[in-house]
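User: Some background: our group keeps a shared notebook of sequences we're curious about, and every so often someone picks one and asks for a predicted structure to add to the entry. Today it's my turn. The entry only has the sequence so far, pasted here. Could you supply the structure so I can complete it?
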Amino acid sequence: TLFRSADRGSEDGAAAELNSVMATAEEDMFHDIVMSDERFHGEGFQEGFSEGRHAGLSEGYQYGALNGAKIGSEIGCYLGFVLTWRCLLHTCTVDDVKHSKKLKTLDSLEGMIHKFTWDDPTNDQLQENLDKIRGKFKQVCSLLNIPTDFLLAKDGGGLSF
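Assistant: Of course. Here's the predicted structure to add to the notebook entry:
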């Protein structure tokens, strides 16, 4: 009888342990169901964040390339303007104060263009320097009696003043 009660005790312990395991399994199953929303939300967030980051980088690259090309074209136009007018003014035989002021202002604009930083788009002074160049260009145009609102020629053949 002693062995029987020991066997019965171990059977009761095994049954209790089995019940405990089943309860834990049921709790885990319900826990997984309840927490699946949170888990899927987290996974969806990570996936969306990754895709958004990739799309943002691609869009930012395209935007930067487009605006960089516009700024480069604008600065190149200013430099071509300076070089052309310097040649025109050097061939001119008039030697007065206005003429020398025009040349000094052209030299100043050319110096600003050459000092303009191209390679650092994070430069805080990039826009400020570009605005200074635009202002100096307007000053040069004023000295040369040239309208600053020139446009590209309609036939695509060059600039029209």
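Suggested note for the entry: Residues 1-9 have pLDDT under 50 and may be disordered. The helical segments are 2-91, 97-115, 126-143.
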